[in-house]
Sequence to fold (256 residues):
Amino acid sequence: MLFKLTHNGFALLGVAVAFVAIALIARPDLRQSGEAQLAQWLQERVSAQQPEDAEPSAIERATATNPKELPREQAAVAYWLSRKYRVAPEPLGALVAAAYEVGRSAKLDPTLILAIMAVESSFNPFAQSPVGAQGLMQVMTRVHADKYQHFGGPLAAFDPVTNLRVGVKVLQECIARAGSLQGGLKLYVGAGNDDNDGGYASKVLSEHARLQQVAQGRPVPLTPPQTVAAGEPRAAIAPAVAPAADTARNDARLAG
Fold:
């Protein structure tokens, strides 16, 4: 008896499905209406399962890369910097990858770029000095506002990768003007007209040498970070009163 009932039930279900299929084929408008209602129902189900403030695309704004996905050399540098400067490895992974990409096109050692970021800001993308140097590479935004136009404007100074790119352009100009890396670093920090740079170039080159060893797979101890305190040398170097005729020149030498 149960078998017959079950068999008959399945038979009736099959007939019903067949009639529905024939109706949908014969009436495309019914099929389209049903598909629309089904899609709406599914969308409502998905929306009901998500909190009101959900924003799945937020991850697209994150400056982060898993260092494990980087080449071995870059991963080693990212993890070493992460331990030394107490910064999460994921954003450092993105910055290391960007430094290698920009360094290749600019013909600059990427570990030099990273060394400048380390000394300038300890990888704080929101750092600002007393004289207005901003971001990872402490670029003088008001002096180099034109360089940010291709990135949407001066506020892009606080986008880590954009600040890196603009900082490298400034560094290239400083090296070209000085004719040497040491002289370029002196210009970058704003000490072009001074006898010394407060030890800035030495700090950068020392960190650069350590990062080169890390990139080569050598063990390098984690020494305390030597950071220019948010533009401290610039503040010390800047004249108390700048004559009007020298304003442009002083702005240019504060281009770090």
Remarks:
- Residues 235-256 have pLDDT under 50 and may be disordered.
